[in-house]
Amino acid sequence: MSTRTTFEDRLLDELKKEIGRHERKASVRPLFAPRRIAVVAAACAAAWLGTVAVPGSPADSTAFAVEPRDDGSIMLTVKAQTISVGAQRELRTKVSAWGIHVTIDLLAPGHVCERSKVTPLVGVDQQGNRVPIIPLKAGWDVALRPGNVLAFENTRGASRPRAVEVYKTRAEAEPCVPVKVTLPDD
What we know:
elongated
Protein backbone atom coordinates (compact mmCIF):
# COMPACT_ATOMS: atom_id res chain seq x y z
CA MET A 1 0.00 0.00 0.00
CA SER A 2 1.36 3.41 -0.89
CA THR A 3 1.99 6.05 1.78
CA ARG A 4 1.82 8.85 -0.78
CA THR A 5 -0.99 11.33 -0.10
CA THR A 6 -3.48 11.49 -2.89
CA PHE A 7 -5.71 14.31 -3.98
CA GLU A 8 -8.67 12.59 -2.32
CA ASP A 9 -6.84 12.30 1.03
CA ARG A 10 -5.91 15.98 1.03
CA LEU A 11 -9.45 16.97 0.05
CA LEU A 12 -10.94 14.81 2.82
CA ASP A 13 -8.60 16.34 5.44
CA GLU A 14 -9.53 19.87 4.35
CA LEU A 15 -13.24 19.02 4.46
CA LYS A 16 -12.90 17.57 7.98
CA LYS A 17 -11.13 20.73 9.18
CA GLU A 18 -13.74 22.95 7.56
CA ILE A 19 -16.62 20.98 9.06
CA GLY A 20 -14.93 21.08 12.48
CA ARG A 21 -14.64 24.88 12.32
CA HIS A 22 -18.28 25.30 11.32
CA GLU A 23 -19.60 22.89 13.96
CA ARG A 24 -17.87 24.79 16.78
CA LYS A 25 -19.45 28.08 15.63
CA ALA A 26 -22.92 26.74 14.89
CA SER A 27 -25.66 25.87 17.29
CA VAL A 28 -27.37 22.50 17.04
CA ARG A 29 -28.64 22.07 13.49
CA PRO A 30 -30.22 19.17 11.66
CA LEU A 31 -27.71 16.59 10.38
CA PHE A 32 -29.03 16.60 6.82
CA ALA A 33 -29.24 20.34 6.24
CA PRO A 34 -29.39 21.32 2.56
CA ARG A 35 -26.10 23.21 2.79
CA ARG A 36 -24.28 20.15 4.21
CA ILE A 37 -25.72 17.91 1.56
CA ALA A 38 -24.57 20.35 -1.13
CA VAL A 39 -21.03 20.51 0.36
CA VAL A 40 -20.74 16.73 0.54
CA ALA A 41 -22.08 16.29 -3.00
CA ALA A 42 -19.60 18.88 -4.30
CA ALA A 43 -16.73 17.18 -2.47
CA CYS A 44 -17.69 13.78 -3.87
CA ALA A 45 -17.92 15.21 -7.39
CA ALA A 46 -14.53 16.92 -7.00
CA ALA A 47 -12.93 13.71 -5.69
CA TRP A 48 -14.38 11.68 -8.56
CA LEU A 49 -13.25 14.25 -11.10
CA GLY A 50 -9.80 14.27 -9.52
CA THR A 51 -9.42 10.52 -9.93
CA VAL A 52 -10.54 10.67 -13.56
CA ALA A 53 -8.86 13.81 -14.84
CA VAL A 54 -5.80 14.67 -12.73
CA PRO A 55 -2.55 13.93 -14.55
CA GLY A 56 -0.22 11.78 -12.52
CA SER A 57 -2.98 9.92 -10.76
CA PRO A 58 -2.50 6.13 -10.62
CA ALA A 59 -3.08 4.84 -14.12
CA ASP A 60 -2.09 1.19 -13.87
CA SER A 61 -4.45 -0.90 -15.92
CA THR A 62 -6.69 -3.34 -14.11
CA ALA A 63 -6.94 -5.39 -17.29
CA PHE A 64 -3.33 -6.60 -17.49
CA ALA A 65 0.09 -6.66 -15.82
CA VAL A 66 3.46 -6.57 -17.56
CA GLU A 67 6.48 -7.75 -15.60
CA PRO A 68 10.07 -7.69 -16.94
CA ARG A 69 12.05 -10.88 -16.27
CA ASP A 70 15.77 -11.46 -15.84
CA ASP A 71 16.13 -13.32 -19.16
CA GLY A 72 15.06 -10.22 -21.15
CA SER A 73 11.50 -11.39 -21.71
CA ILE A 74 8.39 -9.91 -20.16
CA MET A 75 5.50 -11.80 -18.60
CA LEU A 76 2.08 -10.62 -19.74
CA THR A 77 -0.69 -11.56 -17.33
CA VAL A 78 -4.23 -10.67 -18.33
CA LYS A 79 -6.21 -10.02 -15.15
CA ALA A 80 -9.59 -9.46 -16.78
CA GLN A 81 -10.60 -11.71 -19.65
CA THR A 82 -12.64 -8.78 -20.94
CA ILE A 83 -9.59 -6.74 -21.99
CA SER A 84 -11.14 -3.92 -24.00
CA VAL A 85 -9.76 -2.41 -27.20
CA GLY A 86 -8.73 0.64 -25.14
CA ALA A 87 -6.76 -1.56 -22.73
CA GLN A 88 -5.22 -3.35 -25.72
CA ARG A 89 -4.03 0.02 -27.05
CA GLU A 90 -2.62 0.86 -23.61
CA LEU A 91 -0.82 -2.49 -23.61
CA ARG A 92 0.57 -1.76 -27.10
CA THR A 93 2.03 1.53 -25.83
CA LYS A 94 3.53 -0.15 -22.78
CA VAL A 95 5.21 -3.14 -24.48
CA SER A 96 6.51 -1.25 -27.52
CA ALA A 97 9.36 -0.02 -25.28
CA TRP A 98 10.54 -3.66 -25.11
CA GLY A 99 10.44 -4.10 -28.88
CA ILE A 100 7.18 -6.05 -28.92
CA HIS A 101 4.73 -5.24 -31.71
CA VAL A 102 0.97 -5.40 -31.04
CA THR A 103 -1.71 -5.53 -33.75
CA ILE A 104 -5.34 -4.86 -32.91
CA ASP A 105 -7.92 -5.95 -35.47
CA LEU A 106 -11.57 -4.91 -35.14
CA LEU A 107 -13.88 -7.04 -37.27
CA ALA A 108 -17.56 -6.99 -38.11
CA PRO A 109 -19.74 -9.54 -36.29
CA GLY A 110 -19.62 -12.94 -37.98
CA HIS A 111 -16.11 -12.35 -39.35
CA VAL A 112 -12.71 -13.66 -38.21
CA CYS A 113 -9.16 -13.27 -39.46
CA GLU A 114 -8.33 -15.86 -42.08
CA ARG A 115 -5.24 -16.86 -40.07
CA SER A 116 -7.47 -18.03 -37.18
CA LYS A 117 -8.67 -21.26 -38.79
CA VAL A 118 -12.04 -21.28 -37.00
CA THR A 119 -14.39 -24.24 -36.96
CA PRO A 120 -17.75 -22.69 -36.08
CA LEU A 121 -20.24 -24.26 -33.74
CA VAL A 122 -23.86 -24.51 -34.86
CA GLY A 123 -26.43 -22.36 -33.06
CA VAL A 124 -30.04 -21.39 -33.64
CA ASP A 125 -31.21 -17.76 -33.84
CA GLN A 126 -34.56 -16.36 -32.62
CA GLN A 127 -36.26 -17.25 -35.91
CA GLY A 128 -35.10 -20.89 -35.71
CA ASN A 129 -32.41 -20.55 -38.41
CA ARG A 130 -29.07 -22.29 -38.05
CA VAL A 131 -26.26 -19.77 -37.47
CA PRO A 132 -22.52 -20.10 -36.88
CA ILE A 133 -21.22 -19.48 -33.36
CA ILE A 134 -17.60 -18.40 -33.26
CA PRO A 135 -15.73 -19.88 -30.29
CA LEU A 136 -13.42 -17.73 -28.17
CA LYS A 137 -9.79 -18.69 -27.74
CA ALA A 138 -8.34 -18.52 -24.24
CA GLY A 139 -4.90 -18.79 -22.68
CA TRP A 140 -3.55 -15.43 -21.68
CA ASP A 141 -0.44 -15.63 -19.52
CA VAL A 142 2.44 -15.50 -21.99
CA ALA A 143 6.13 -14.71 -21.97
CA LEU A 144 7.04 -12.21 -24.70
CA ARG A 145 10.48 -11.35 -26.09
CA PRO A 146 11.73 -8.42 -28.16
CA GLY A 147 10.62 -8.93 -31.77
CA ASN A 148 7.48 -10.90 -30.85
CA VAL A 149 4.10 -9.91 -32.24
CA LEU A 150 0.94 -10.03 -30.14
CA ALA A 151 -2.17 -10.02 -32.35
CA PHE A 152 -5.62 -9.24 -30.90
CA GLU A 153 -8.69 -10.21 -32.93
CA ASN A 154 -11.80 -8.32 -31.77
CA THR A 155 -15.41 -8.40 -32.87
CA ARG A 156 -17.12 -5.01 -33.05
CA GLY A 157 -19.56 -4.70 -30.14
CA ALA A 158 -17.94 -7.44 -28.02
CA SER A 159 -16.35 -6.69 -24.65
CA ARG A 160 -13.37 -9.00 -25.11
CA PRO A 161 -11.13 -10.19 -27.91
CA ARG A 162 -12.18 -13.32 -29.75
CA ALA A 163 -8.59 -14.51 -30.10
CA VAL A 164 -5.06 -13.57 -29.16
CA GLU A 165 -2.14 -14.93 -31.17
CA VAL A 166 1.59 -14.69 -30.40
CA TYR A 167 4.13 -14.81 -33.23
CA LYS A 168 7.92 -15.02 -32.84
CA THR A 169 8.62 -12.39 -35.51
CA ARG A 170 6.81 -9.90 -37.71
CA ALA A 171 7.60 -12.11 -40.69
CA GLU A 172 5.53 -14.92 -39.14
CA ALA A 173 2.62 -12.63 -38.27
CA GLU A 174 0.17 -12.81 -41.10
CA PRO A 175 -1.99 -9.72 -41.65
CA CYS A 176 -5.64 -10.06 -40.76
CA VAL A 177 -7.76 -10.82 -43.79
CA PRO A 178 -11.40 -10.74 -42.65
CA VAL A 179 -13.50 -13.72 -43.75
CA LYS A 180 -17.18 -14.38 -43.08
CA VAL A 181 -17.76 -17.47 -41.03
CA THR A 182 -20.22 -19.87 -42.63
CA LEU A 183 -21.67 -23.15 -41.51
CA PRO A 184 -20.24 -26.31 -43.04
CA ASP A 185 -22.49 -28.06 -45.54
CA ASP A 186 -24.30 -31.05 -44.04
